[in-house]
Amino acid sequence: MLSRANNPKTIQAPRGQPSGANQMAGSGTQPRGQPLIELCGLSKTYEAGGVQIAALRPTDLIVQRGAFLTVMGPSGSGKSTLLNLFGLLIRPTSGDYRLEGRTVSDLNDDATSAVRCSLIGMVFQSFNLLSHLTILENICVPMQYAGVPRARMRKRAKELLAQFGLEGRDGSRPMQLSGGQCQRVAIARALANDPSVILADEPTGNLDEKTGQEVLTIFQELHRSGKTIIMVTHNPVYRQYATQSVTIHDGKVAEG
Amino acid sequence: MSPLEMAVTVYASLTRHLIRSLLATLGIVLGIAAVVAMLAIGEGGRREALRQIESQGVDNIILRSVKPVEGNSQQTTRSFTQRYGITQRDFDHIRNIFENVRLLVPVMDTRRDIFVGQQTTDIEAVATVPEFLEVTRCRLVDRRSRFLKPTDGQVLEPVCVVGVKAARRLFGHQDPFGQSVVIGNVSFRVVGLMESPGGGRLAGQYELNNVVCLPIETARALWGGIRVQMRRGMAEQVDYDFLFLSVKATGAIPGTAGRLRTYLRSVHAQADYEVQVPYELLQSARKTQRIFTIVMTSIAAISLLVGGIGIMNIMLANIFERTREIGVRRALGARKRDILWQFLAESVLLTSIGGGLGVGLGIATAAVAETVSRMGGDAGLKAVVTSESLLVALAVSVITGITFGTHPAWKAAQLDPLTALRHE
Fold first, then answer.
1. Which end of chain A is less congested by CB atoms within 10 angstroms, N or C?
2. DSSP label at A243?
3. B59 CB near a chain A CB, below 8 Å?
4. Which of A15-29, A187-201, B30-44, B282-296 has the highest mean pLDDT?
């Protein structure tokens, strides 16, 4: 069972000032080519009005460390269900989900939270920044739950802001930023605890084409630096950047 | 999350809607203010009552002559002299039979006016014995002072001891020693100055600092034991206006008072006396205080219940409004208990701020009530804010926050992360 106390990621020191793509990822970067995520017969069924609805049919999937996986499919096909399963926001109905070689699909709530905190970074379509906090404080939120000391936390947050071109904007509120800037803050927040995998749910969906491309470039750089990225998208163009791609139709996952 | 981070998070959340947060605390502010103010006034009243009682001497039993209601006395129909109150026979009986009585101090009101210039004053001239000083808890002021001596009544030159307030009125800034006080056309030389430290009253009546004491033998020699007051051709006779019985042990007071009442009922045909037992009054005051405390606690409980429900309401609304925030926090790694503690801490901080403001408002209210009550020039109310009452008020506000914040916080913690994230 994972716990905050014995997970070294929760108390990692912040990295030095990154100057290039290789420094973007931090220590969450591991040698490529090893399985990071393994799904074995993972499925999710919902019940609505007494009818069982298979949101995700039994799925076997391996995501290699350092992969850039795109998840595509029409609306209601089960893309978000798969991403929520990856993010431990919902529990599977059956099957096994292994992350970094450990089964995480049957953990209790505390342990699940600890995994979300230290191994998974989430980026949402609507950014989901906390409007009453400054962008620096927003980036600090995951580190607060990881128990990072305040001084180190703020230093790390400032480094991330600088890394994403938001230096000197520490005290700004999300509403004072553009959509692209907000998404950059959200990505910085996802990287705060140096997670093993970044889950992005249509991260360019609320952005114009140009800004969306800028955000995608950030993900490309993160991927090049060794980060594992799983991105749900409607845009088939993004597939060209992926090392691995899956398509979902009616809850059935197909590679390619 | 560390306590520091928790504090920062809670502060940020509360200051987000500062006015709403302050309004949410209003019920607690008013509840705590009412409690603090009433406790302060109640405590002041209690201390004043106890001071008054204790100034009469807790180990004393005071027997007072009371003029019976006119028409009840058979003697008035047959005689021009109305005789009532404590008699010499009562005095002798008590002195001889009541073995628990350590001191028996008679006091007579001379009923003679004391003048300052041409004007009469409310200074009372009382005739008594040397033990008066002890039973009334008075003390002598000035090194030259002495109280009455057993031999004072035998000398030709009458002497008196003056209370400090009476001395100021009679002599102003002049040295009272060696000066004379004229009582009923007789000059009494001042030999002592006395003071009642607690500003006590003689049997709850005359202000001890405003009396002049003279030897009882002198008063008898001058005016006899009969007080004659011509009114429609009638006179009154009172042997003693007061008798102070100082009992050997506090435990013996109730029994002695009981025996005294039994004796007086058996020998007095009419209710021309009153038995005051400060010890019983003290017990009664304590009982009253207990009732007061229960009533206050009930009022406080109701106030805080109302305030607490207000807090719970605001917290529930807060949680509904911030459901998406809860989802985001859960998605970023917050445990259920992190969410629980965050919202519970917000609730406790709200009620604590309310408690703090309430304490301030309560102290101010008590001070205003005290000032207003003294505007007429009377002694008025006295408000005493004790540190215990402040601690209790603050503790109660924290407990209210915990009690009424737990349910909303628990509800927030139980939210499903995904459902909360999708909340619009």
1. C
2. S
3. no
4. A187-201
In whole angstroms, give the CA distance from residue A229 to residue A128: 19
Between chains, do B334 and A113 touch, taking CB under 8 Å as contact? yes
Q: Is residue A180 part of a domain?
A: yes
For B306, B307, B308, the CA distances from B302, given in Å and listed in that order, are: 6, 9, 10
Strand segments (E) across B73-219: 81-83, 101-109, 115-116, 119-120, 124-128, 139-141, 159-163, 180-183, 186-195, 201-202, 206-207, 211-215
DSSP classification of residue B206: E
Whether B335 has its CB under 8 Å from any CB of chain A: the answer is yes
Q: What is the mean pLDDT of chain B?
A: 84
pLDDT of residue B126: 92
Partners of residue A90 in chain B, C-beta under 8 Å:
418
Residue A116: which residues within 8 A CB-CB, separation 6 or more?
Answer: A87, A88, A89, A122, B330, B331, B332, B333
**Residue range(s) defining the domain that contains residue A182:** 130-193
The reply to whether A1 touches chain B by the CB within 8 Å rule is: no
- For residue B88, count other CB atoms closer than 10 A to its CB: 11
What does the alpha-carbon distance between residue A191 and residue A207 come to, in Å, rounded to a whole number?
20
Q: Note whether A58 contacts B: Cβ–Cβ < 8 A.
A: no
Burial class (CB in 10 A: 0-12, 13-18, 19+), A194: buried
Cα B367 to Cα B372: distance, rounded to the nearest angstrom? 9
The alpha-carbon gap from B347 to the nearest alpha carbon of chain A, in Å, equals 18
Please give the pLDDT value at position A26.
Answer: 46
3-state secondary structure of A122: strand
* Nearest-Cα residue of chain A relative to residue B328: A128
Question: Between B2, B5, B335, which is nearest A113 by CB?
Answer: B335
Report d(CA B138, CA B209) in Å as an integer.
Answer: 9
Identify whether A173 is part of a domain: yes
Residue pairs spanning A and B at CB distance below 8 A: 69
In a domain, A150, yes or no: yes
How far is residue B40's CA from residue B34's CA, in Å, rounded to a whole number? 10
Could you tell me if residue A183 is inside a domain? yes
In the stretch 402-421 of chain B, residues with CB closer than 8 A to chain A read 417-418, 421
pLDDT of residue B70: 63
The residues, ordered by sequence, that sit 6+ positions from A255 with a Cβ below 8 Å of its Cβ are A61, A244, A245, A246
Q: Is A150 on the interface with B (CB under 8 A)?
A: yes
- What is the percent of chain A with per-residue pLDDT over 70, rounded to a whole number? 87
Q: Does B291 touch chain A (CB under 8 A)?
A: no
Half-sphere exposure of A95 (CA within 13 A, CB side): 22
Q: Is A130 on the interface with B (CB under 8 A)?
A: yes
Q: Which residue in A has a C-alpha nearest to residue B423's C-alpha? A: A128
Per-residue model confidence (pLDDT) at position A254: 87
Q: How far is A23 from chain B (nearest CA, A)?
A: 22
Instruction: Measure A209 CA to nearest chain B CA, in Å.
Output: 25
* Distance (Å) of CA A202 to CA A75, A83, A164: 12, 11, 19
pLDDT of residue B79: 57
> Given CB atoms, is A236 within the 8 Å cutoff of chain B?
no
Chain A positions touching B336 (Cβ under 8 A) are 109-110, 113
Match 């004796």 to its residue by tokens.
B263
CB-CB under 8 Å, A146 with B333: yes
Q: What is the pLDDT of residues B320-372, one digit of tens each?
A: 988 999 999 999 999 999 999 999 998 998 899 889 999 999 999 888 888 88
ipTM of the complex: 0.86
A141 neighbors A130 (Cβ within 8 angstroms)? yes
Return all residues near B91 (Cβ < 8 A) that are at least 6 apart: B104, B106, B239, B240, B243
Total number of domains constituting chain A: 1
Does the beta carbon of A81 lie under 8 angstroms from any beta carbon of chain B? no
